[in-house]
Every structure is written in structure tokens, then in C-alpha cells.
Design a protein that fits this description.
Elements (H helix, E strand, L loop, with lengths): L7 E5 L4 H12 L3 E6 L2 H15 L3 E5 L5 H12 L7 E4 L14 H29 L2 E6 L12 H20 L5 E6 L8 H4 L15 H13 L4 E2 L3 H12 L2 H15 L1
Parallel strand pairs: 1-2, 1-4, 2-3, 4-5, 5-6, 6-7
Helix pairs in contact: 1-2, 1-7, 3-4, 4-5
């Protein structure tokens, strides 16, 4: 995207991976930024780099969005009518991997708070002002894991199923307001996410990996066009279409077999 579509965007999880990719792409298009993540040093370095390279203003907000107190500052920034946000990219999140009964339940709880609760609260903070202005967009980064139950990644897939369903519902609720909500549903992407989620990826075929820039471009294009759902990559589009016509029980068993083999 070369033309400026949004004046100011707030991107969560902006210190690395897909979030950083969104920040870079938006800055290159002339969009001012508010970047949010836990790692202040990375955010400040990114802010300096993007300001010097593209002349955009980049505001840094350090926050662990799973924690209500620092998250409140981000909610307040989104609701600030004097400094409107035109685009919210809810990207922050993480996954866990393994048999559910063996995982740390506190970590599972944190995963739900970040992937679901934070996303809901930030979206709720942003939408009223956007609707009042008749302009704005929310891009919620979900996953192709949202399209079916995923044994060994049960909580992660469930949180992303929420994100995709929630986003599609809000897409309809905001129809005709000048505001859109989009769920971006990538597959495997080459980022730090896999390390933090303890996901085994050595057996993932090379054709299944997506490039961050491709995912970001697909997300921004779909958001600019007001699409409800974006699935980057021909392979994942085909898998999604196949899953829609395959009996649920079979999809569930296939997903379980694949994740068992990957471990």
C-alpha cells in the first residue's frame, strides 16, 4: 500500500513479528503510529528508525496488555477524541502447545486474557470514536487455527476462534457507519511467535510458511477494502475452503493427527 489510507494507527505487539511488520508498512505509507508492546527498548529503537526513515510521528506505549492496569492507559489513548486513532491493529498475542492437562493453567489464563480480553477491551475503546467520526478500521490478527478445534493447541485455537467470530459479528454491526472490522487469519509465519509458544515446527513443510510482509500486505489490503476475513496465501485459502465442506468430526481427527505428528 503506497497511498496514505489512515492518518494514525495503533499497533499492539509492535516490537517484533507481524506487529512490527504492520508498523513498518504503515510508516512507509505515511501513517503516524502509536506502537504498543512490553519491550520499551525495542519500541524506542523502532520509533526512532521509522521517524528518521519516513518522517512520521511514532508514540511509544509500553504495556503488558494481559494486565488491566497498564492496559487501561492504552484504552484511554484509543478513546482520546483529541488524538483520534483511525486504525487499530490488535496483533498482540501468544500461543501454548501440548496436552492441555499438562500445561500451566496460569499461563493458559494469561493467554486468554491477552488474546481475548485485551482485544475486546481495546476494540471497545476504539470503536465509539471511530463511529462518531464516521471513519476508521479495526484489524484483529487471528489465525487459520480459528477455523477448527486444534488438539495440542486447544486454548490457542479457541481464543482465535473467538477473535474470528467476534470480528465478523462486529463487521456486521458496524456496516454503514464508515467503520470496518476485519479478521486477519494467517497460517505459519516466520516470526518469534513459534519460539514463545513452544510449537514444534521442524516438520512443517516449507510451502506452509508465510512471509511477514505478505501477511501484512494482505491484512492492510483487506482492511482497506472493508473485508470481514482475510486468509493470506493460496494454500491456506484452499485448506479453509476444504474445511468448510468436510464433516466436523473428520476435521477434528485430522487436526489431532497432524499436531500429534508435529510433536
Amino acid at each position: 500500500m503506497t497511498a496514505t489510507h489512515w492518518r494514525t494507527a495503533l499497533v499492539t505487539g509492535a516490537s517484533s513479528g507481524i506487529g512490527e511488520g504492520f508498523a513498518r508498512r504503515l510508516a512507509a505509507g505515511g501513517t503516524d503510529l502509536v506502537v504498543v508492546a512490553r519491550r520499551t527498548d525495542r519500541l524506542e529503537a523502532l520509533a526512532t528508525e521509522l521517524h528518521e526513515a519516513h518522517g512520521v510521528d511514532v508514540e511509544v506505549l509500553t504495556a503488558d496488555l494481559a494486565d488491566p492496569w497498564p492496559r487501561a492507559a492504552v484504552e484511554a489513548r484509543l478513546a482520546d477524541a483529541g488524538r483520534p486513532i483511525d486504525l487499530l491493529v490488535n496483533n498482540a498475542g501468544f500461543g501454548t502447545s501440548g496436552p492441555f492437562v499438562e500445561l500451566d493453567v496460569d499461563r493458559e489464563d494469561e493467554e486468554i486474557r491477552l488474546n481475548v480480553i485485551a482485544l475486546v477491551r481495546l476494540t471497545h475503546a476504539a470503536l465509539p470514536g471511530m463511529i462518531e467520526r464516521g471513519r476508521g478500521a479495526v484489524c484483529n490478527v487471528s489465525s487459520v487455527a480459528s477455523f477448527q478445534p486444534l488438539p495440542q493447541n486447544a486454548t490457542y485455537a479457541a481464543t482465535k476462534a473467538f477473535v474470528t467470530s467476534f470480528s465478523q459479528a462486529l463487521h456486521e454491526e458496524t456496516r454503514g457507519t464508515g467503520v470496518t472490522v476485519t479478521a486477519l487469519c494467517p497460517g505459519f509465519v516466520q516470526t518469534e511467535f513459534q519460539q514463545h509458544s513452544d510449537t514444534a515446527t521442524s516438520r512443517v513443510p516449507s510451502f506452509a510458511w508465510l512471509d511477514v510482509d505478505h501477511v501484512v500486505d494482505a491484512g492492510l489490503a483487506a482492511t482497506a477494502r472493508g473485508r470481514a476475513v482475510a486468509v493470506p496465501g493460496a494454500t491456506y485459502k484452499a485448506l479453509d475452503a476444504l474445511a468448510q465442506v468436510t464433516p466436523r468430526g473428520l476435521v477434528r481427527r485430522i487436526a489431532g493427527a497432524v499436531t500429534d505428528r508435529a510433536r
